[in-house]
Write a structure and sequence with these properties.
Strand content of chain B: 25-35%
Shape of chain A: globular
Number of domains of chain A: 2
Helix content of chain B: under 10%
Number of strands of chain A: 0
Number of helices of chain B: 9
Order of helices and strands of chain A: HHHHHHHHHHHHHH
CATH class of the largest domain in chain A: Mainly Alpha
Oligomer: heterodimer
Structural class of chain B: mainly beta
Helix content of chain A: over 70%
Radius of gyration of chain A: 18 Å
Shape of chain B: globular
CATH architecture of the largest domain in chain A: Alpha Horseshoe
Structural class of chain A: mainly alpha
Distance between the termini of chain A: 19 Å
Chain lengths: ~250, ~575
C-alpha cells in the first residue's frame, strides 16, 4: 500500500468513525471533515481551504494541523502553508501545537529545496520548535527538536543540544504509559550518542529500546552493524534530501 | 549451472575483480607526479583585492587556475598554457621538448600578460580562428578577453584590439566551436558575475541574489567568427540572451546525433541549462523537458559516451560536502532529447566540493574513466563553514550585498580534499581508486586537462590548483590495451576539426569521440582523439563525420597517432613526433 493510500485510509477511517475528538461535531470538525473529503477527491484547493478554516477556529489542534500539512505535501503548496501558519501563530500566540506544526511546515519543504535553502528552512524550524517547548513542554516537542538537531552536521555543534532534548523526551516518556511511538526516542537518542562518538552508550540504549519494543527494525539494523556500515545507515537516516515523515497520526492512533 | 553460464558469470565478475588492488599486484591504473622532473614549476596565485571586503571578493573569484593544451608549434608534441590571476603575475607557456621535459617559453612568445589593475585572468583556450594551421590563443578575464594570433616560429601577436571581442565580462569559461558550420570557429564565453568591474566596484550588490536559484549572474555571450580574426556578438540572435545564471562552465557536443553542436551550461547557485542547435544559427532551450530545473552548484560540464551506447552523456560536478549534499550529475542520454541522472547508480555522485572533471580511457580498456578534482580552500585549522552558515541563516539577509558576507581570514573552507579517480568497469559502474592510482592529492584542484604528452599511447593528467602549484601525472598504468590516436585536420570544416565525430568499431564495441573545443572547467584537453581498444587487436571500422557533413571511412594503424585530413585521408605526422608506445 502506498503511503498516500495508507494516509487517506487512515484519515477516512477516523473521520467516518465519529468526530475528530469523539464529541458532537463543532464548526471546526465540520470543516475538517470537508477537508478530508476533498483530499480523497484530490481536490487540494478545497482541502487546504477547509483545513485552514478548521484551524482558524481551533488553532492548537495537533491533528487538524498535521493532516493539513500532509495535504500540503501532496499539493506541494509549501509557501501557502508557511504563510498560513505565520498568520495563525500571530492570531493565537499561545498555541504551542500551532508553533510545532509551523516548524514542521518548514521541515516539509526541505526535500524540495536547494542545499542552502535547506539550511535556512531547518534553522527556522528549530526556532519554532523552541517556541512550542517554551509554551508547553511535551514529549513530541522535545523529540521533534532533538531529532531535528541531529540533521545538522557535527561542525555546527548542535548534536549535544539534540541529545539533551532527546534525553528530556526519554525522561518524559518514562513517566507516561508506554506508547508505541516512544521507541522513536530510543532510536534517535542512540543516534545522537553515536554522533557524539559514544558508541557504547548508543548500543546500550538501542538494546534497551529493543527490549522494550521487540522486533523494531531500525533498532535491529543498528545493532547488527558497526563501523562504516553503521555510519552509512545513520547518515542515510539524516539525509536532508529524503522526506522525513512528519505525519503525527501515531499520537492519536497508537 | 552449465559451463556457458559459469563462463558468463566469470565474465561478469572479471572487470570488478581486475579493478581490485591486491597485495603484490600492481594497480590497474598508475600515475607518477612528474611536474618538477618535467621542469614545470608554475604556481597559481588568486587575485588579492584591496578594500574592506577584498577578502570576500577573493573568495568569490578563487578560480582562475587554468590549463590549455595544444601542439602550438606543430611539432607533434602537445604543449600547454597556464594562467595566473594575481596582478603582475605572468601566465606561462610551456613547450614540450619531446623528451619528458618542458621549456618555459613565455617571454619569447610574449603571452604572459593579462593580469593588470583592471583585469583578472581566469581561463584560456587554444583555437585556430583563421584556419592557418597554427593554434591561436584566447585568454579570458574578469575584464575584456585577450586574443593572440600565432605567427609561427613561437611568436604571437596581440590582436585583441581588432578582434571585436571588446565587451567587458566577468568571464570564467570559454569554448570554441563552429555553431553555424560555416567552417570558422566561433566562441562562447561563460560569465560568472554580471558585468560589474570587481576591481572598481560601483555597488556592493554584486553577489548572488539567491544561493540556490540566482538569476543575477553574467550568463553567456556567443561570438561568431569570420575566419579573419573578427568576432561579432550573436548572443541574442542565437537565443542565449535570456540566460542570466552564474555560468561556471560550458560544454558542447552533438547531444542528439543530428550533426549539430549543442550546448550545456553548468551554473553555480542555480539551475544548469541545455540548448539544442536548430541548424539555422539559433538554439532552443529545453532544460525543463531534458533535465528538469535544479538548485545545485554546477561547476563542470564534460561530455563523453561513458557507456558506449553511441550517444554523448554529460558529467556535471556539484557540491557534496559537510552542509551541502547535492550529489554530482551524470546525465545519461536517453536518446530522445532527455537525460537521466545516474550519478548515484554509477558511483560518481560524491566528489566533495567539485571542480573540473574529465573522461578518458586511462587503461585503454575501451571504457572511459573519470578523473575529478575538488577542494575550495585549504588554509588554517579553523573551519569557515559555521561562520558562513551564521550569515546564511540571518533573517532577511541580503546575499547580494558584499558587506553582509563574513571575512574568511586564514580559515579553511572545504579544503584538503582527496581527488577522485573513477575506473569505468562497464555496465554503468565505476570504482573509485585514486589512492591506488597515486592521484589522491589534496590540493585545491580546479582544472583537469588530458593529453598524451609523451606520445606513448596513454593519457596523462594535468591538474591546476588555486593558489598552489600545478601537478602533472604521467600515466604508467601496467598492461594497458591497444590504442589509436587521431589528429584531425579540417579543410572545409574548421581546421581544428572541433565538433568532428569519430565512430570506431573494435571488439564488437562501437566507441565514439568528438573533438572538444574546451569542455570542462578551467582546462582544455588535447584536441587529439584517443581510443583504447581493450582486448581487440584490430579495428573493424572507423568513420569520421566532419562538421561540414562529409563522412569519411578509413583504416588507421594501431598504437600510433594518425594525422587525417578532411577529404584526403592519412597525412604524414610531423617529423620526430614518435613516442614510445606501450
Amino acid at each position: 500500500m502506498s503511503r498516500l493510500n495508507a494516509f487517506l485510509l487512515l484519515i477516512l477511517f477516523t473521520a467516518s468513525s465519529g468526530t475528530a475528538r469523539g464529541v458532537e461535531p463543532t464548526a471546526a470538525d465540520n470543516h475538517y471533515r470537508e477537508a478530508i473529503k476533498a483530499v480523497s477527491a484530490k481536490d487540494y484547493t478545497t482541502a487546504l481551504t477547509e483545513f485552514e478554516l478548521a484551524l482558524d477556529i481551533d488553532p492548537d489542534n495537533l491533528r487538524f494541523a498535521s493532516d493539513y500539512r500532509q495535504a500540503v505535501i501532496l499539493a506541494k503548496q509549501y509557501d501557502r502553508c508557511l504563510g498560513f501558519f505565520e498568520k495563525l501563530v500571530t492570531a493565537a500566540p499561545a498555541a504551542s501545537n500551532a508553533y510545532l506544526n509551523y516548524g514542521f511546515a518548514y521541515v516539509d519543504k526541505i526535500p524540495d529545496a536547494g542545499a542552502i535553502t535547506q539550511v535556512i528552512l531547518a534553522n527556522k524550524s528549530l526556532s519554532l520548535f523552541s517556541r512550542s517547548i517554551e509554551l508547553k513542554p511535551s514529549w513530541i516537542a522535545y523529540y521533534t527538536r532533538g531529532n531535528s538537531s541531529l540533521f545538522w552536521p557535527k561542525i555546527f555543534g548542535r548534536t549535544p543540544l539534540g541529545v539533551a532534548d532527546l534525553e528530556e523526551a526519554m525522561k518524559l516518556q518514562k513517566t507516561e504509559n508506554k506508547r508505541g511511538f516512544h521507541v522513536r526516542a530510543y532510536i534517535a537518542l542512540g543516534d545522537g550518542y553515536w554522533k557524539m562518538g559514544e558508541l557504547d552508550k548508543a548500543r546500550t540504549l538501542w538494546r534497551e529500546g529493543l527490549a522494550q519494543f521487540p522486533g523494531t527494525s531500525p533498532l535491529v539494523e543498528r545493532l547488527a552493524v558497526e563501523g562504516d556500515p553503521l555510519k552509512a545507515l545513520i547518515d542515510g537516516m539524516y539525509d536532508p534530501n529524503k522526506r522525513v515523515d512528519t505525519n503525527l497520526h501515531e499520537l492519536w492512533t497508537d | 549451472m552449465t559451463v556457458a553460464a559459469c563462463l558468463f558469470f566469470v565474465a561478469l565478475l572479471a572487470p570488478s575483480l581486475l579493478a581490485q588492488s591486491e597485495p603484490g599486484r600492481p594497480a590497474r591504473l598508475r600515475f607518477e607526479e612528474i611536474s618538477q622532473k618535467a621542469g614545470v614549476s608554475h604556481v597559481h596565485h588568486i587575485r588579492t583585492f584591496k578594500g574592506k571586503k577584498g577578502d570576500v571578493l577573493g573568495m568569490f573569484t578563487s578560480g582562475g587556475a587554468s590549463v590549455a593544451v595544444t601542439d602550438y608549434d606543430g611539432d607533434g608534441w602537445d604543449d600547454f598554457f597556464l594562467t595566473d590571476s594575481q596582478e603582475g603575475e605572468a601566465n606561462r607557456l610551456y613547450r614540450n621538448r619531446g623528451n619528458g621535459t618542458f621549456a618555459d617559453v613565455t617571454q619569447s612568445a610574449g603571452v604572459g600578460g593579462g593580469n593588470d589593475a583592471r583585469s583578472i585572468v581566469a581561463d584560456a583556450l587554444w583555437f585556430d580562428y583563421d584556419n592557418d594551421g597554427r593554434a591561436d590563443l584566447l585568454v579570458v578575464r574578469f575584464g575584456t578577453p585577450l586574443l593572440y594570433h600565432n605567427q609561427g616560429g613561437g611568436n604571437f601577436k596581440d590582436v585583441s584590439a581588432t578582434s571585436g571581442l571588446n565587451k567587458f565580462g566577468n568571464t570564467v569559461a570559454a569554448i570554441a566551436f563552429d555553431y553555424d558550420r560555416d567552417g570558422y570557429l566561433d566562441l562562447m564565453l561563460g560569465n560568472y558575475f554580471k558585468s560589474e568591474n570587481l576591481l572598481d566596484l560601483k555597488t556592493p550588490h554584486v553577489l548572488p541574489n539567491d544561493l540556490d536559484n540566482a538569476v543575477n549572474g553574467g550568463g553567456v555571450t556567443l561570438w561568431r567568427g569570420d575566419g579573419h580574426g573578427r568576432f561579432t556578438e550573436v548572443t541574442e540572435k542565437a537565443g542565449f540572451a535570456r540566460h542570466s545564471g552564474w555560468t561556471l562552465d560550458i560544454g558542447h557536443g552533438d547531444f542528439d546525433n543530428d550533426g549539430l553542436q549543442d550546448v550545456y551550461l553548468a551554473c553555480d547557485y542555480g539551475t544548469d541549462r541545455i540548448f539544442f542547435n536548430n541548424g539555422d544559427g539559433s538554439f532552443r532551450e529545453t532544460t525543463e523537458k531534458a533535465l528538469g530545473y535544479d538548485t545545485k552548484k554546477g561547476m563542470n560540464a564534460e561530455a563523453a559516451d561513458y557507456d558506449n551506447d553511441g550517444w554523448l552523456d554529460i558529467y556535471v560536478t556539484n557540491i557534496t560536502d559537510e552542509y551541502m549534499k547535492e550529489c554530482n550529475m551524470l546525465w545519461h542520454n536517453n536518446h530522445d532529447g532527455t537525460f537521466t541522472d545516474l550519478s548515484k547508480e554509477t558511483g560518481t555522485c560524491d566528489t566533495l566540493w567539485g571542480w573540473g572533471a574529465k573522461f578518458g580511457d586511462f587503461d585503454n580498456d575501451a571504457w572511459q574513466d573519470l578523473f575529478a578534482v575538488n577542494g575550495l580552500r585549504s588554509a588554517g585549522k579553523d573551519n569557515f563553514i559555521p561562520v558562513l552558515v551564521n550569515m546564511i541563516i540571518t533573517p532577511g539577509i541580503d546575499f547580494t550585498d558584499i558587506n553582509n558576507w563574513p571575512d574568511i581570514g586564514d580559515m579553511s573552507w572545504s579544503g584538503f580534499q582527496k581527488k577522485k579517480l573513477f575506473l569505468n568497469l562497464g555496465a554503468d559502474t565505476f570504482k573509485e581508486m585514486s589512492a591506488d592510482a597515486g592521484v589522491d592529492n589534496d590540493l585545491d584542484g580546479r582544472g583537469v586537462a588530458l593529453a598524451d604528452f609523451d606520445n606513448d599511447g596513454l593519457l596523462d593528467i594535468f591538474q591546476t590548483n588555486a593558489n598552489q602549484r600545478v601537478l602533472l601525472y604521467h600515466n604508467q598504468s601496467p598492461n594497458p590495451g591497444r590504442w589509436v590516436g587521431l589528429k584531425l585536420v579540417g579543410t572545409k570544416s574548421n581546421r581544428d576539426a572541433i565538433g568532428t565525430r569519430v565512430t570506431l568499431r573494435a571488439g564488437n564495441r562501437s566507441l565514439i569521440r568528438e573533438v572538444s573545443g574546451g569542455n570542462g572547467y578551467s582546462a582544455q584537453s588535447s584536441t587529439r582523439l584517443h581510443f583504447g581498444l581493450g582486448a581487440a587487436d584490430r579495428i573493424e571500422s572507423l568513420e569520421i563525420r566532419w562538421p561540414s557533413g562529409l563522412v569519411q571511412k578509413l583504416d588507421v594503424p594501431l598504437d600510433r597517432i594518425s594525422y587525417i585530413k578532411e577529404g584526403t585521408g592519412m597525412i604524414a605526422a610531423p617529423a620526430a613526433s614518435e613516442g614510445t608506445p606501450k
